[in-house]
Design a protein that fits this description.
single chain; Elongation Factor Tu (Ef-tu), domain 3; 6-stranded antiparallel β-barrel; 2 helices; 9 strands; 10% helix
């Protein structure tokens, strides 16, 4: 099982009013969206925009809605929604608690230099939560969507 940290702070330097929660995940999907208009020239040549924004979709490990003593519960998701998401600056970060492992693709800058989060974190505009039941196990699962703050 892999873990990540959803974090927020009052300032952009990530030093004041910090809050965070580490959550177990199944994985992180990502996609890109072109920013700007497509231009078609008189000769028929088409030029696509060169800037793009990355969208991350974090798939959580199933969490319990009824067992408050479990390691990962609906209370953790509610904390992320109400406390972390309320901060003006937000990041997806590597887990820092001893024994929790972040996905190598996002944390290993040596072997994954193009996809790893630089310095172990990426700034995002905010988190959107889509929670779905998994009734057969008495659990729920969340898809957390986050848009990267900067375009590239």
């Amino acid at each position: 099982m892999y873990w990540i940290k959803l974090a927020g702070a009052t300032d952009a330097a990530d030093t004041t009013g910090q809050v965070s929660i580490e959550i177990p995940i199944l994985g992180i999907e990502w996609s890109t969206e072109l920013i700007g208009d497509t231009v078609t020239y008189a000769d028929g040549t088409v030029k696509e925009p060169v800037q793009q924004r990355i969208t991350y979709v974090i798939k959580t490990y199933p969490f319990t809605t009824n067992d408050y003593a479990a390691e990962f519960t609906i209370e953790d998701i509610k904390y992320a929604i109400n406390t972390v998401n309320a901060k003006p600056h937000k990041w997806i970060k590597e887990a820092t608690t001893s024994g929790l492992v972040s996905p190598p693709r996002w944390s290993d800058e040596t072997n994954y230099p193009l996809t790893a989060f630089p310095s172990g974190k990426v700034k995002v505009g905010g988190f959107r939560f889509d929670i779905q039941p998994e009734w057969d196990g008495g659990n729920e699962i969340a898809n957390i969507t986050a848009l990267k703050s900067s375009v590239g």
